[in-house]
Every structure is written in structure tokens, then in C-alpha cells.
């Protein structure tokens, strides 16, 4: 009984102390943390701090008007307060510069750095200090096969650069300066194009004809580069004619110094004596000098109709027709079947084909390139 009355009196004292703001038993049922901080109805202490769940935060965006709460007047929210710039940091906006001012400033900068040497920043990727391209990459781009196939060509010691056989992988070359050969044939590493056309009869050997006649340019339209023909064929002569954008090669193929041979098939009417071939090889006098054939043979004979093959290295106008006519056998039909190492084969009349890398190498070897 005594202990029970002691506990009741302690609780009552704690309640009284909480109501009056005095110190009491904080473990009493009537006390709380808010009462202890002096935030009660009758307390005279400091104001009670709000709990986190009771606090109010300003979550309004920049377009919701001036922010509320503490410091709104300092931020320009109050009437008559300083207006704040919409830029970040509250700085003032710079005035716009005129175009003349920018032009003068750019001109001054150009004059300032005009005479200063250009500084090349060092390259940081592996192998950047080495100049040129890898040999197998150049060969693959030139059409010699895949990179792996070109590496096998190098392993087989079939590739030479500037006259020396390459024995190891990874060599770097300059496609514009270095001479690259595969199996002794030069590889056209630059962006050159080579075509062979079987020119039909009646086509003019020019790229453009002012009279509107059919010409060689009609067969190579919509090309990415300008092409020109190597040599000429008269209008009524058929056969192979080369088209390319390689000026030096075209010049050498047509220059008498290099003596590139051309082969023709001519249809004539006999009878044909045996000494005709010897006479053509010894030389026939024409109005512009002697003309000699390098080779002559009879390909076919049907009665009095003969099909003969004439090979010569000259390129004068109508040379084959004039030689046979001077020998007493006018030409009825003429076809050029080979230009140097490039043969017409079974290519149809009017067809255009691109030369292979091997054929281009053979042409270059023919003229010492």
C-alpha cells in the first residue's frame, strides 16, 4: 500500500510540473518531448522546432512566381526589391557585339599568327610515328585479294617494293611514290581506271563528237573520273581500244619509242602470192615513208577470200589499209585483235570491260613502268 501511494503521488507531481512548466517526473504519462521543450499551451520557453514531417519546403519551379519563405525579399520576391537576372549566377547580360567588331577581331588574330610556324601535335595512337600505309592494305585496295591473301603473297616472297623483295609483314609504303610489283608486274596502287572496248564499225574514235555521231564517250558515261582513249581506230575499223585516266601510261603506249605492237585481222581478196608476207616485212614505200610489218600470216582461206593477220608497232593513220592496198590487196574489213599484251578474245562488239590488275601490270611492263 505504501509503495502504491508513492507511485501515484509521483505521477501527480509530474503532471503538475508539466502543466506549469516546472521540472517534474519526465517518465510520467502526461509528459512529452514537446512539453519538455517549452512548446506547451502555457509555457514561456523558446518556440518548438517543427519535426521533419511537419516542415514545409518550397518546391515551386522557376515559372511559379517568386519563391516563398525565408529570404524571398532578398531574392527580389518582395515588391520594390532588386530584380534578379534569369541567367545563372545573377550576372548582367553582355551587350551583343556587331559583325564589324567580330570581323576586325578575327583579322587581328590572323595577322598575329600569320608568321608563326605551325605546330604539329604528336599523334598518340600506336604506330602513328611511322609514315605510309601497310603493304598488305595497299595491295588489297588495288584488287590483289583480301588482306590475308596479300599477306600470303608477302610470305611467299612474291612482292617487291622499289626493286627489293619484301620478306616480312608490316612494311609501310607510300602508294604515290613507291613502286610495288607482284610476280614482277607493277601494281596500280593509285585510283587509276583501265577499260578495253570492242569498238564497233561506224563509231568515231573521240570522246565527244561535235557532229553528233556515235563516239567512244557514249560507252563511258556516268564515270567518276574523266577518261581518254589510247590511240585511235578509223571509223570503219573494229576491235580493241583502251580507255584510261592514266596519262603517262597512255602516252607511252602510243609513243613510237616504246614500240608497242598491235595485231590486226584483215579480210582481202586473192589470189595471194607467197612473197606478199616477205614484202610487207621488208617494208613498203608509202607517201609518208616506209612502213614495215613485224609479222604476217594467213589465218584462213576460202576460195579467193583470205583472212590474214598483220602485226606492226607503228601507229600512223590507216597504216594497215594503206600497206595492203599498196601491195595490191585492198582491205574489205579490218579488226584490231590485240593491243600489246591485251587481247580482244571473245569480247562482243560494243562491250566494255575493266582490265584486271594482271593485265594492267603487263601493260606497264611493256612500256617500262
User: What proportion of the residues is helical, as a percent range?
Assistant: 10-25%
> Count of helices?
9
Which structural category fits the helices and strands? alpha+beta
Instruction: Bin the strand percentage.
Output: 15-25%
Q: Extract low-pLDDT stretches.
A: 1-31, 37-43, 63-67, 71-82
Computed Rg: 49 Å
Shape: elongated
Q: How many beta-strand runs?
A: 17
Largest sheet, described in full?
9 strands, mixed
Overall average pLDDT: 75
Order of helix and strand elements from N to C terminus = HHHEHHEEEEEEEEHEHEEEEHEEEH
Head-to-tail CA distance between termini: 129 Å
Topology:
Elements: H1 2-20, H2 33-36, H3 99-112, E1 133-134, H4 135-141, H5 147-155, E2 159-161, E3 164-165, E4 172-173, E5 180-182, E6 185-186, E7 194-199, E8 228-230, E9 238-244, H6 247-254, E10 262-269, H7 275-282, E11 284-286, E12 289-291, E13 295-302, E14 305-312, H8 319-326, E15 333-339, E16 342-343, E17 352-354, H9 357-366
Helix pairs in contact: 4-5
What does this 3D model show about the protein?
Helices cover 24% and strands 20% of the residues. The chain has nine helices and 17 strands. The chain has helices spanning 2-20, 33-36, 99-112, 135-141, 147-155, 247-254, 275-282, 319-326, 357-366; strands spanning 133-134, 159-161, 164-165, 172-173, 180-182, 185-186, 194-199, 228-230, 238-244, 262-269, 284-286, 289-291, 295-302, 305-312, 333-339, 342-343, 352-354. The strands form four sheets. Strands 7, 8, 9, 10, 13, 14, 15, 16 and 17 form a nine-stranded mixed beta sheet that branches. β2 and β3 form a beta hairpin. The longest helix is centred in the N-terminal third of the chain and has 19 residues, at 2-20. The N and C termini lie far apart (129 Å).
